[in-house]
Amino acid sequence: MKLNVFFTTYLIVVHFYRSPFLITLEP
User: Fold this and answer.
1) Distance CA 18, CA 4 (A)
2) All structural domains of the chain with their residue ranges
3) How far is residue 25's CA from residue 27's CA, in Å, rounded to a whole number?
């Protein structure tokens, strides 16, 4: 599933950039 790869990449971006908008989705 390409969706799995996209989700994993998204999590990596969140941890690297830690944008206020993305960090909201973090636990």
Assistant:
1) 20
2) 1-27
3) 7
Say what the pTM is. Answer: 0.42
Where do we find the tokens 């390409």? Answer: 2
H-type helices in the chain, by residue range?
Answer: 2-17, 20-23
Contacts of 23 (CB under 8 A, 6+ apart): 14
Tokens describing residue 3 = 């969706």
- Residue-wise pLDDT tens digits, 4-24: 899 998 888 877 776 656 555
CA separation for the pair 21, 19 (Å, rounded): 5
Q: Do 16 and 8 touch, CB atoms closer than 8 A?
A: no
